Amino acid sequence: MQLALWTLLPAGVAAGTVFPYLLRLAQGTAAGAGQTLGRLAAVNTVGAILGSLAAGFIVVQAAGLWGSFVWCAALYLALATAMLRFPSRRPAPRVVAAAAVGAATVMVVNVTGLPLVWLDPVKGERLVEIWQGGHGIVSVVESPRGRLLKLDNAYSLGGTVARVEREQIQALVPLLLHPRPQSVFFLGLGAGITAGEAVRHPVSRIVVCELVPEVVTAASRHFDREMRGLLRDPRVTMIIDDGRQVLLTLDERFDVIVGDLFVPWHAGTGPSTRESTSKPSAGDWRPAGCSRSGCRCTSWPSANSP
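Above: the chain's sequence. Below: its structure in token form.
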């Protein structure tokens, strides 16, 4: 908390003063107050929209996490340098511009050496491979205990650190509960160990939906054996999209739907296990279909059953 406070607060306050400061400088222009305010507000709004879209979909994917900070710092550096070239009767603009030049220069020089993934030396962790994208940082970390797939340096997406049977059983139980499963849908791939359990069952269709494309790449490269060659199986269809939206729009019914996208013992995740939020639309299910979500399996009978 303190690290985030000292890291983000000064930068946020400085960035937040730019628009009010421009309004203050515009008071001395020949245009009317309403016209000046309207133009600045329009430029600020368009810049906020384009900046947020570019940061998530272009800059981070092209330059990576710390490279994105360098790009932003370089942009502020260029604007501040340009501001220094314009004459001003007030000393404040030149002082602010000089401070911005100094701060941006320090960031450009120092930020590139910062680590992307924290490794625990006590556990003997080492970085195997890393990917950066619009959804975050995906990494494969290895230790004497096994390999682990992580998202954003904290959230574990599965691996071989614990017994792989714990992940396989999440698909095994609902597949055994259904009398004759032919099609199965997995919300989330992760390391692919859970979905890979379906490969050794006599099902005709396996659909796996994963939101983060880098997770699919990491699983195929480093967990192919643990997920039983899932992505090479001809029965498997891999979809990179939001799983719930796919279920709501896909014109297909499934015998089994498996979801393991939350930690049920964390505060606030309980409501996601309730029927009102976890049960997909009726069109997703075949009669006697079953679902596994979190630590609980639920069977949805057909509409004609007693």
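The first helix runs from residue 2 to 16.
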